Amino acid sequence: MAENVSEVLAGAAVLAAAVGFVIYAGQGTGFGGDVGRYPLKASFRSVEGITVGSDVKLAGVKVGSITDLQLNPQTYFADAEISMLDGVLLPDDSAILISSEGLLGGNFIEVIPGGSPINLEPGQEIEDTQGAVSLISLLIKFVGNGAKDAVTTTDPAADPAQP
């Protein structure tokens, strides 16, 4: 009889841990309740590296998350819906951009507040956006310019001052 009680208690502990994990994961990905939050919208040229649940940060502090990403078939831009904390009111001239935490870090949405005295209302769109910058394309440009500079500086025929 004592074995059955210990098995039931162990099973209950595992079940409680699983339920706690599901609740924690749901809140971390934005699937939890939106109590104390309001929606905003933004349209990006590219949302590379961003998914539903990605963080929205202001001054390095998480103030919201991405709740929806859809391709707009008319503009071919990615329309994002953002869930912001109620206490964070953004001026209507604020900017929003996709930033990287570093070379090996992930991407997140960064909000840069404007100076307007008028705040965005729930459901309004942030107009000033900047999409993700591809690290690969930047490296290709850098390497391409470096190779071009090396050719022009080592080729005597390319330098008119050389005899």
TrEMBL record:
Pfam family name, one: MlaD
Domain spans labelled Mce/MlaD: 38-114
Matches recorded under InterPro entries: Mce/MlaD, MlaD_Phospholipid_Transporter
Name listed for the protein in its UniProt record: Mammalian cell entry related domain protein
